[in-house]
Amino acid sequence: MSDASLSAPPVKASPFHELEVLWVRHWNDQLFSFGVKRPEDFRFRSGEFVMIGLPGLDGAKPVLRAYSIASPFWAEELEFFSIKVEDGPLTSRLQKIVAGDSVLMGKKPTGTLVLDALTGGERLWLIGTGTGLAPWLSVARDPETYSRFKQVIVCHTVRNVADLAYRDFFSHEIHDDPLIGDEAKAQLTYYPTVTRERFETPGRITDRIKSGDVFADLQLPIGFSPNSDRVMLCGSMAMIKETGELLESYGLKEGSNAEPGDYVLERAFVG
């Protein structure tokens, strides 16, 4: 028998990166963020998502879910924003990670919440609910965003004030960003709304669009214009469906990577 016949079969390359957790931040008992070391060969467009997970228990298959990358394309580490679900197959375990632990990440980022899927316009609306804020953390730190649009509006709707993760970041910390700080200070507006507690801008973003309050608050013409407004949507299925219908009623058309349009949503998260 030859040596060749005794050699082990080639090891199949893993479809995942195994990455070190660099830090974890718990915003409250419902939300947390974490950062991982970025692989040298990993490239993505701001706004894309990737599969994140942990090895399966007792030899089972890995448990993975789609997560928007909350870092801009140029960042040296990758950040993610997650909910905590007590009995969730993944987040029940993921919420317990600490610095030094490892997580799995897919090697192929993808998604439609990217600037390439939008045609040109004057004003970019980034509308999200809950952890649907994550891709806006990426898009809002991309220099191309400010070169393509004169105004960028980040809308974040949550149930309770304590759920407004990254509120300080969008309110003032982003102004100190060495790459886009000056542009963000001049062009970015942060517009949070809260549905279950008293707040200066209460209610769902869809209700504030219908009433015209969001436009009045921002001193903008009532409604969306196909000529000037471009919109990205991420978050609850109900918000995306309702806002999409509102945008269509104003004449905006959905876009994609293959055919850019006036607004985009991430279908991977809405079924």
UniProtKB/TrEMBL annotation:
Residues 14-116 form the FAD-binding FR-type domain. GO terms for biological process: cellular response to oxidative stress; heme catabolic process. Keywords: FAD, Flavoprotein, NADP, Nucleotide-binding, Oxidoreductase. InterPro entries: FAD-bd_FR_type (IPR017927), FNR_bac (IPR033892), FNR_nucleotide-bd (IPR039261), FNR_type-1 (IPR051930), OxRdtase_FAD/NAD-bd (IPR001433), Riboflavin_synthase-like_b-brl (IPR017938). PROSITE patterns: FAD_FR (PS51384). Its EC number is 1.18.1.2. It holds the Pfam family NAD_binding_1. It is an enzyme of class 1 (oxidoreductase). Its cofactor is FAD. The keyword Protease does not apply. The keyword Nucleotide-binding applies. It comes from the Bacteria. Gene3D superfamilies: Nucleotide-binding domain of ferredoxin-NADP reductase (FNR) module (3.40.50.80), Translation factors (2.40.30.10). One of its GO terms (molecular function) is ferredoxin-NADP+ reductase activity. It catalyses: 2 reduced [2Fe-2S]-[ferredoxin] + NADP(+) + H(+) = 2 oxidized [2Fe-2S]-[ferredoxin] + NADPH. Belongs to the ferredoxin--NADP reductase type 1 family. This is ferredoxin--NADP(+) reductase.
